[in-house]
Amino acid sequence: xxxxxxxxxxxxHIGNRPQQNDRVALLTSPNAPGYVLAVLADGNHSAIGPDQxxxxxxxxxxxxxxxxTPNLPRLKELLGAIVLEAHQLIKMNPITAAAEPxxxxxxxxxxxxxxxxxxxxxETRVYRFSGEASAERSNDxxxxxxxxxxxxxxxxxxxxxxxxxxxxxxxxxxFKAPYVALNVYEGLRPGDAFLLCSDGLWQCFTDQxxxxxxxxxxxxQAAERLIGKAAERAQGKGDNCTMAIIKLVAPAVNR
Length: 255
Fold this sequence. Notes:
- There is one protein chain.
- By secondary structure, this protein is α+β, with helices and mostly antiparallel strands.
- The protein has helices at 48-63, 72-92, 96-99, 141-149, 155-159, 199-202, 207-216, 219-234, and strands at residues 5-13, 22-29, 32-43, 103-110, 115-121, 125-130, 133-137, 181-186, 192-197, 241-249.
- The longest helix is centred in the first third of the chain and has 21 residues, at 72-92.
- The protein starts with a strand and ends in a 6-residue tail after the last strand.
């Protein structure tokens, strides 16, 4: 018997935008029993990029074949391949020349062996919670260091990469391939949880608020309460608000 069972869900709200450009899904694969892939993509001006990111994620995860035991290097390769292939396909779309449909992306895969591998590109975030504590979250530190070290970009300019078309770390950027930073955690147990979300959510909360909301509620309840509070705090200027919540809980004891 597994040391935990998974409770998970996704949620979206359009906010105060004219359309919903985010996409989110929790995926399983016929060739990877017990594995779960969470995908969250956030588009800038349209859903073209996120739609492609979600489609690519599903196709490559469906084709992914596991060995006898979970292989973390291969899982890292899978997430990296999803990012780069989606990026190339978005650029090949004939609409992209004029519209530049960029997409941020967050990916998380869980294995039956209590392992997690995740990455993010752009302004999406991945949080790992331990109970009501925020244990870690994705950020742009590695990308800033990459720009300074490899591209010789001055530190202050690198810190402002989001405002530069030349430096923006997104899928579909015609000037630059996305930078993929990968994270691994082993030894998952009941009480651990993950949150993938777009900036329409995380910019309204502290890390501690998000951890507490996820720990104290079911995924559905947490999503409803977070969306409601985000709308309140945005004061009529809310962005698309999207999330995937995965909680690890102790299995029921049969008596």
